Amino acid sequence: MIRNHNPLTEKVLVSPDTKLVLMSIKEPGERYGDVIARVLQDRKREDFIAHLDRIAQEGEFVPLDLDPEYRAIKNEMRRESRHRKTGAAVH
Questions:
Q1: pLDDT digits (tens, 9 = 90+) for 6-43
Q2: What is the C-alpha separation between 41 and 33, in angstroms, rounded?
Q3: Would you list the domain boundaries of the chain?
């Protein structure tokens, strides 16, 4: 639950139908401002995920294995993993 600790300074006029919807999704202890903030946060998250999905579908990607820095990190992690399995110190 999102708690808005800022003082309330604004009134938002909504239709009776909208108020009923807000009441139906309101959790115990929440103010209407908290409900609206939660709905907006959910919307931002959904928009961001949709944006990432578009990038994944339409984007042009270069395989990470072609990047020398990534390859060096990956090789180092493999080396450390092998040493961990054998109990040897990694230097």
A1: 777 888 899 999 999 999 999 999 999 999 999 999 99
A2: 12
A3: 1-60, 61-91
Q: Measured in Å, how far apart are the chain's first and last C-alpha atoms?
A: 47
Locus of tokens 């115990």: 28
**In whole angstroms, how far apart are CA 65 and each of 57, 59, 71, 73, 78?**
20, 18, 6, 10, 14
Q: Tell me which residue of 52, 17, 12, 21 sits closest to 39, measured CA to CA.
A: 21
CB 65 within 8 A of CB 59: no
pTM for the full predicted model: 0.56
Query: Encoding tokens for residue 80?
Result: 């450390």
Number of H helices, E strands in the chain: 3, 0
Which residues, other chains included, contact 31 with Cβ-Cβ below 8 Å and sequence gap of 6+? 4, 8
Q: What is the token pair recorded at 89?
A: 């110190």
